[in-house]
Design a protein that fits this description.
Helix content: 40-55%
Structural class: alpha+beta
Number of strands: 21
Radius of gyration: 42 Å
Strand content: 15-25%
Oligomer: single chain
Number of helices: 19
Distance between the termini: 145 Å
Shape: rod-shaped
Length: 569
């Protein structure tokens, strides 16, 4: 009997302790004491109650059990109608006025505030986001209610929040002066984030217009949809344009375009269509699912947004798997994309869990998507910069190869092929030449003897010296080329053969007084022979002019060299 009595006593004691513990945990919210020195209450305890019916009158609400909580809560999609209970007491000897802020008011469908004294409603205010007549309690997306407390009065506030999808709200209390300051500065962080995204949008649109590379356009579209969603979801549009309620709810369809643009960007930079068919099919399937949900959202936006959380996990999982696959395949852009997308996925997961009411209320969780988009955008901009550098290197390489293909490697003058192309282009500008056009062929005299006597190295120096003089003496519009081993050609636009003869003589005379040093004790002099012709204005036949200049060159050679000869028809 003694043992049984002892066990019964223990059971009773445990039940009493459990009841005591339960009453402590579920106790009514503490009374918040304020007086004329009050400035602000941004963190305090209150109570909340979820009304499953959505239309319970205040008389019944007062009798419900309120769960203790902080003043900022997130309850997911199963608590669309939630009441908050706050007990205030003016401990001073003079009346005071407080201002209750609900900074997430733009996110809700309706907010109702009841002021209760001694069980009686003394004042009731309803803020309906679809009724502009009630907007007098709305300031830049934040609901602001003034609350007057006479001296020594205890007043209970019952705040009803009706959400569209996810129940997220926060209440804060301020004095009049501090209330104004908070309202003025409340969206500075979001403005900064959107401003940075806007700068990236403008930059990439200009890059697309200048380069016509699709990745710039797809990236800019991703930034546009992401920036739009940040401004919409975090109250910037509500602050600037005073647009709330069901209208902005429909704009959330933009949430679907953001991952679609990102996936298209991935397809483009990773070139999945041509190189990675499996990953390409996965990305296209994901895009199709997102597009289907967006179209469905045109008819039932609330259901579409409720599905968005599940779709977000699918999109993030597939995009992350594709990125990891690219990394394992050693794609040069995969590491940067993995880092940037990793930021987005990490913070977006926190945001999804936050909106579903599974994790606590803090700045990072509540602004996770915006932070993720910004960080990903900054890292993806490095990918864009990397692509630009790669393309610039490729263009520089192509230009260098083109230069090598078009120039003589020894003299850096045009080679024979490039001379023919440029000369033909010049002659093809008109069916008939409208200006005199002359051509000169120059040949180094006894060049084989120079090579045989002093070696090819000195022969190369002689050729380079001739090229230097030609560059110095010829005009910018003249087309100068190394036409053969020791042979050069000049095509002179707007030049008669007489004027061409003057230029040829100046070049020949200059080189006749030029020498190349063999060693400290010996110099080598050399001369040129030149043949000159004029292109027929009627036929514009370049080859005929070359043949005529060649005949004049042979005449100069046969006449003793070191001279210029004109072709006479």
């Amino acid at each position: 009997m003694t043992g049984t009595g002892s066990r019964s006593s223990i059971v009773v004691l445990i039940m009493l302790l459990c009841g005591l513990l339960s009453s402590i945990v579920n106790a009514a919210p503490p009374t918040l004491q304020v007086n004329h020195d009050f400035k602000k209450l941004e963190q305090f305890q209150m109570g909340y109650f979820v009304d499953p019916s959505g239309n319970m009158p205040i008389s019944q609400v007062q009798n419900q059990h309120f769960e203790a909580s902080s003043n900022s809560i997130t309850l997911g999609s199963n608590a669309k109608t939630t009441w908050a209970k706050i007990v205030l007491q003016n401990t001073g000897d003079s009346p005071i006025t407080l201002y209750l802020h609900n900074p997430y008011a733009y996110y809700n469908h309706a907010i109702e505030l009841n002021e209760v004294v001694n069980g009686q409603v003394t004042r009731k205010r309803l803020l309906d986001m679809d009724n502009k007549d009630t907007y007098k309690w709305m300031y830049q997306g934040t609901a602001v209610f003034d609350i007057t407390l006479p001296r020594q009065q205890v007043k209970t506030l019952y705040l009803k929040n009706v959400s569209y999808i996810y129940q997220v709200f926060s209440v804060e209390l301020y004095s009049q002066d501090l209330s104004k300051r908070v309202l003025i500065n409340q969206y500075n962080d979001i403005t900064l984030i959107v401003g940075m995204v806007l700068a990236l949008i403008i930059y990439n649109f200009f890059l697309f217009l200048s380069s016509r590379l699709k990745e710039h356009l797809f990236y800019a579209c991703y930034l546009v949809s992401g920036g739009f969603w940040i401004a919409l979801s975090y109250g910037l549009f509500a602050s600037f344009f005073d647009v709330f309620g069901s209208i902005t709810l429909k704009w959330n369809i933009a949430l679907g375009t953001m991952p679609i643009c990102l996936l298209i960007f991935m397809i483009n930079i990773f070139e999945t269509r041509t190189k990675y068919p499996t990953e390409h099919k996965a990305l296209l399937t994901t895009i199709a699912i997102l597009a289907t949900n967006s179209i469905y959202g045109l008819f039932d936006i609330i259901s579409a947004l409720e599905y968005a959380s599940s779709l977000a996990f699918i999109v993030m999982s597939i995009s992350l798997c594709v990125t990891i696959s690219m990394f394992l395949r050693r794609h040069p852009l995969a590491l940067l994309f993995l880092i940037g997308h990793g930021f987005f996925v990490t913070f977006s997961v926190l945001a999804v869990l936050f909106y579903q009411g599974r994790i606590g209320f803090n700045y990072i969780n509540s602004h996770g998507v915006g932070i993720g988009i910004l960080l990903e955008s900054l890292v993806l901009s490095l990918i864009i910069a990397n692509r630009i550098r790669t393309l610039e290197k490729l263009e520089a390489t192509q230009a260098e190869l083109q230069l090598l293909a078009s120039t003589d490697p020894l003299t850096q003058l045009l080679n024979r092929r490039s001379f023919d192309l440029e000369a033909s282009a010049l002659l093809n500008q008109d069916k008939q030449i409208r200006f005199p056009l002359s051509l000169a062929i120059l040949d180094i005299d006894f060049f084989k003897n120079i090579n045989d006597t002093y070696g090819h190295s000195l022969g190369d120096q002689v050729i380079v010296r001739v090229a230097d003089v030609l560059r110095a003496q010829c005009r910018l519009q003249d087309i100068v080329a190394r036409y053969g081993g020791e042979e050069f050609v000049i095509l002179m636009p707007n030049t008669t053969r007489e004027k061409a003869h003057v230029l040829a003589e100046r070049i020949r005379t200059t080189l006749a007084h030029t020498s190349v040093q063999v060693d400290q004790n010996q110099l080598v002099n050399f001369t040129l022979s030149v043949g000159i012709s004029e292109v027929d204005a009627k036929t514009a036949d370049l080859q005929a002019a070359i043949n005529q200049a060649d005949k004049a060159l042979y005449k100069a050679k046969n006449s003793g060299r070191n001279q210029s000869q004109l072709h006479i028809s």
